[in-house]
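look at this fold:
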Amino acid sequence: MGGRIALTVNGLAHALAVPRDAPLLNILRNDLGLNGPKYGCGLGECGACTVLVDGIEARACVIPVGGVEGRHITTLEGLGTLEVPHPVQQAFIECQAAQCGYCLNGMIVSTVALLRRFSRPTEQQVREALVHNLCRCGAHLEIMQAVRRAAELTAAAAT
């Protein structure tokens, strides 16, 4: 197994006895009980498993847990709470930007990463940021609206 792996997930330190080559997604879901990141394709192509690693979006299904030891991982659960959602989560709620909701983890986490890079992203920047997040339900118009609203809410929260 290779000893214990030290992870910081959503601000909490964990020391886990897991195989170093196990996918981060499996550890998050099975060992830490975090169900925000979803298993979609298992190839890093659909975006359902997206998390932030040191603030950068990453696909948890293709990253070995040993590769993120000592780094800060943020999942959907680490962004906000039911009582005080993150501005991006609030925007997706307000805009009803979901049908089945399976893609929302990736859409929201990717939007958080986008808004850290560009506070007022252009439509082209939004499209590029979300191009690898697949929504099979076709809620793309609502998702685009939610990203624009998230930019407004994030800007308002910063003032």
